[in-house]
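Can't paste images in this forum, so I'm doing it all in text. The chain is below; anyone willing to post the predicted C-alpha cells underneath?
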Amino acid sequence: MTELMLIRHGQTTWNREGRYSGQTDIPLSEEGLRQAQQLAERLQGQSFLAIYSSDLLRAKQTAEPIARATGAPLYFDPRLREINQGEWEGTLFEDIRRRFLDLWQHRLQNPHIAAPPGGETVGQVRERVLEALEEILQAHPKGRVAIVAHGLVLALILIHARDEPLERVWDRIPANAQPQTLHLEAP
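Text version of the structure:
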C-alpha cells in the first residue's frame, strides 16, 4: 500500500482575489512562498520515495523547497496540471456566476460534460489525473510519495480514493499548502 501525501500549491494572488487560475502559469504570492517554505520546514527530514508535481510554476514553487528539505527526487508531470478553464481563466468567480449563471450551474451539476468555453470538462481532467495516479502507485506500491498539484486535481484523487461521485469534486478542493494523507493500493 502506498501512502500519498496530497499537497495543494501555496496561495497565489489569483487565489486570494477569487479568480479562475486554470492553466495560466502564475507564480505564488508572497504569502504562498511563505506557506511553501513553512511546509518544507515542517516536512524536513521526513522520508519520501518521490515527489510528483504539476509542471505549472505555482506547483513547482511549492514542490521544490519540499524536495530540498526532504532529499526526495522531484518529477514534473503535465497530467497533474489544473483544469483548463478556457475563456474563464483570470476572471473573478463572481463575474462568471453573474455573466454565465446557466452554464456555471450546469457545470456544477454535470462536471463530466460541461466546460467553460475553450476549456476542459472535469471528466477530461479526471482521465489524465487518474492515469498519472495509476502510474505513480504502480511505480511505488509500498512507501510514501507526495503529489504537489492543484485544487481540482487533488479533489479528483480524493473522491476517487473515497469512491464518491464526480459531482462531489467541488466539495473536496483542499486549502492551499495544507497536506492530506491517503493510503491507496496500486490497481
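The first strand starts at residue 2 and ends at 8. The CA atoms of residues 22 and 121 lie 12 Å apart.
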